[in-house]
From TrEMBL:
<protein>
    <submittedName>
        <fullName>FAD-dependent monooxygenase</fullName>
    </submittedName>
</protein>
<dbReference type="GO" id="GO:0004497">
    <property type="term" value="F:monooxygenase activity"/>
</dbReference>
<keyword id="KW-0274">FAD</keyword>
<dbReference type="Pfam" id="PF21274">
    <property type="entry name" value="Rng_hyd_C"/>
</dbReference>
<dbReference type="InterPro" id="IPR036188">
    <property type="entry name" value="FAD/NAD-bd_sf"/>
</dbReference>
<keyword id="KW-0503">Monooxygenase</keyword>
<dbReference type="Pfam" id="PF01494">
    <property type="entry name" value="FAD_binding_3"/>
</dbReference>
<dbReference type="InterPro" id="IPR002938">
    <property type="entry name" value="FAD-bd"/>
</dbReference>
<feature type="domain" description="FAD-binding">
    <location>
        <begin position="6"/>
        <end position="369"/>
    </location>
</feature>
<keyword id="KW-0285">Flavoprotein</keyword>
<keyword id="KW-0560">Oxidoreductase</keyword>
<dbReference type="InterPro" id="IPR050641">
    <property type="entry name" value="RIFMO-like"/>
</dbReference>
Length: 590
């Protein structure tokens, strides 16, 4: 009988969720093993949009600059174009991914990071290499088969696909990050809502020099309104830039009820030619694959000692670029909790907050991504392109918008309005950053008794910073000596942080005597950190002597307004108890 391999955490899957879970756990010193049934990391671009919140996570985990060095920068992402083909007529554009001037200012104010386009086949090596360098043990061609769990841990049966034999890995916890057909989630019997296979799509990866059609309107996405573009797929034909301006990926739909087409090289080339619109440009097809658009989400992310993350628990189309972002953020939420439970600092009840916090986010992004597909239909509708008709009729409808008639003027206005509405897919800054973990659902958040003010503007489009418990700590530029840094740079690294100001000395002393490591950060004139622009004073929503306790993942867990200078003695007596009581709740000891 073979020897059982032991570890603290077993991770099934090496995609964005699994790789980032491994990276975070190894950064925190938690032994972990990653198994993947494949012989290599991702070999196709797949997920690519990397939003500001994910970049903040990668910043904290120490790999932000490696991603920036390889990614397509934000300024080359944003001329999202609607056209009849790349070489054909342009119908309109949307300034996207933070490149509209007013939205760009919102991005600048919201985070120290910039979003970028980092294809999955480049992202995975960054995450995995860093994880392995910090202690992760990675096993390629090792396929998860099943698991059993008991009061003390999980025993997984794994097949070595090289040797052909099976063996067991004994772990205290198991993370299923094995994608949209997750065997771990199925074995754990996680309850699911929604449905799989609502539409059919194919992806075609190809190489071609398309700079003559794209360099003057740089973008990540070019949407093609052509005959057949409304059949299945993600709302229209898509030509996606993988690397400017020579590597590309096309998404084209098919009737899911009729089944996927035969993906021959000839078929793939015909689709490429149709969407590019230039038969003379040399094209090399690298790969093609069929997949389905899904609208499914898990209602629970855990069963006992088994947790799932990423596409295993939220399955949706690539609209809005939410897939890998949400996957990485799932893992980041879970990793610090596992670390504190494993080292005995927290009660296992802390892990219940993972589902309470992340499941609503997963459901939201599944709904948003699928709605974005449906919001493409009005673009076709403006051109009378939804009803069955010949290609010639569609081209005639498109040409009619150029007539000097009242009807054509109305058509042009309708088309502009429909394209502009796609801002909900391409500039949904609030979807990226407005996650709020509910204090009434998560025990890892301590309510402060203040009423929820809601959102002053559309919460999908606009980020609204808040220091309320359950919100991500607001970003503000502060200084320390000659250094300028973000408030987000003072937190993280696997530890809790307490932020206060002048008059908050009692909070600093209280932080020193707690059962968990807390780093105290004092911001104010003459302090370790100063607020020369006054930005932090405007965003913190508490007086100088108040306090914010921030979790390792950057979310505010506890907020107190303080007692004011005239009641400093009272605060000194109460601060330790207030902070200790909050930590007992957060860590599951209450």
């Amino acid at each position: 009988m073979s020897t059982v391999v032991e570890t603290d955490v077993l991770i099934v899957g090496s995609g964005p969720a699994g790789a980032s879970a491994a990276l975070a756990l190894s950064t925190y010193g938690v032994p972990n093993i990653v198994v993947t049934r494949y012989a290599s990391l991702a070999d196709t671009p797949r997920a690519h949009i990397t939003n500001q919140r994910t970049m903040e996570v990668l910043r904290d985990l120490g790999v932000e600059q490696e991603v920036v060095a390889q990614a397509t920068p934000q300024h080359l992402m944003g001329n999202t174009t609607f056209c009849t083909s790349l070489a054909g007529e342009e119908l309109g554009r949307v300034r996207s991914w933070g490149n509209e001037p007013l939205v760009q200012a919102e991005h600048e104010l919201a985070s120290p990071t910039r979003m970028c386009d980092m294809p999955q086949h480049l992202m995975e090596p960054v995450l995995v290499n860093a994880a392995v360098a910090r202690g992760t043990r990675l096993r390629f061609q090792n396929e998860y088969l099943s698991h059993t769990q008991d009061a003390d841990g999980v025993t997984a049966t794994v097949r070595d696909r090289l040797r052909g034999d099976t063996y067991e890995i004994r772990a205290k916890y198991l993370i299923g990050a094995d994608g949209g057909r997750s065997r771990v989630a199925a074995d754990a019997r996680l309850p699911m809502g929604g449905q799989m296979g609502v539409a059919g799509s194919i992806s075609i990866v190809f190489e071609a020099d398309l700079s003559k059609y794209t360099a003057h309107r740089p973008s990540t996405l070019y949407w093609v309104l052509a005959p057949g573009a409304t059949v299945g797929g993600i709302g229209a034909g898509l030509v996606r830039c993988v690397r400017p301006w020579n590597e590309w990926l096309i998404v084209w739909g098919y009737d899911v009820n009729a089944g996927a087409p035969d993906l021959t090289t000839e078929y793939a080339e015909s689709v490429v030619r149709q969407l590019v619109g230039d038969d003379d440009i040399p094209v090399t097809v690298r790969s093609s694959s069929a997949w389905t658009v899904n609208e499914m989400y898990a209602e629970s992310y855990a069963n006992g000692r088994v947790f799932c993350a990423g596409d295993a628990v939220h399955r949706h189309p690539p609209s809005n670029g939410l897939g890998s972002n949400t996957s990485i953020q799932d893992a980041y939420n879970l990793a610090w909790k596992l670390k504190l439970v494993l080292d005995g600092t927290a009660h296992p009840k802390l892990l219940d907050s993972y589902t309470a916090e992340r499941a609503p986010v997963g459901r939201q992004i599944v709904t948003r991504a699928n709605r974005s597909i449906r919001e493409t239909a009005p673009v076709f509708e403006a051109l009378d392109g939804l009803s069955p008709q010949t290609p010639e009729q569609l081209w005639a409808n498109i040409a009619a918008r150029k007539d000097a008639t009242e009807a054509a003027e109305k058509q042009r206005a309708k088309l502009r309005e429909a394209i502009a509405f796609k801002v909900y897919e391409f500039n949904a800054h609030g979807v990226d950053l407005n996650q709020r973990y509910p204090a009434d659902g998560s025990a890892a958040i301590v309510p402060d008794g203040t009423p929820d003010p809601g959102f002053a503007r559309d919460p999908e489009l606009y980020h609204q910073p808040s220091s309320r418990p359950g919100a991500r700590l607001p970003h503000a530029w502060i200084t320390s000596g000659t250094r300028t840094l973000s408030t987000l740079d003072t937190i993280g690294r696997g530890r809790f942080t307490l932020l206060t100001g002048i008059g908050g000395e009692a909070w600093v002393r209280a932080a020193e005597g707690q059962e968990v490591e807390i780093t105290a950060v004092v911001i104010g004139p003459g302090q370790q950190y100063e607020d020369p622009y006054g930005d932090w004073a405007r965003l913190r929503e508490i007086p100088d002597a108040g306090a914010l306790l921030v979790r390792p993942d950057g979310f505010v867990a506890f907020r107190h307004a303080g007692a004011g200078p005239e009641a400093g003695k009272l605060l000194a007596e109460d601060a330790g108890k207030l902070l200790a009581d909050a930590l007992r709740r957060i860590l599951g000891h209450a």
